[in-house]
């Protein structure tokens, strides 16, 4: 863990929302992140993208939240993708086997 405070910025363009994650997505940040993402994830009309470029750390709690978002969006048949995954995060996604379910947006 790097100790970088977690924060989120959102950018909306018509029906697309890009959520930029900054810092450490861990147990300490989980409640805040879930609360912020709830309304966005539930709106199936929105194309949702998570930009992980500035994500410095993610633990199992953070990965669990991403899996929950993925499942909900899949059930809704709603758009969900990720972008700019740092190598250290990609390595965790590969090790846990979730890489194949997370569609990179190019």
Automatic annotation (TrEMBL):
Q: What InterPro entries does the record point to? A: Anti-sigma_ant, STAS_dom, STAS_dom_sf
Ranges of residues in domain STAS: 6-106
Query: What NCBIfam families does its record include?
Result: ant_ant_sig
Task: Indicate the family of this protein.
Answer: Belongs to the anti-sigma-factor antagonist family.
Protein name in UniProt? Anti-sigma factor antagonist
Q: Which organism is it from?
A: Paenibacillus apiarius
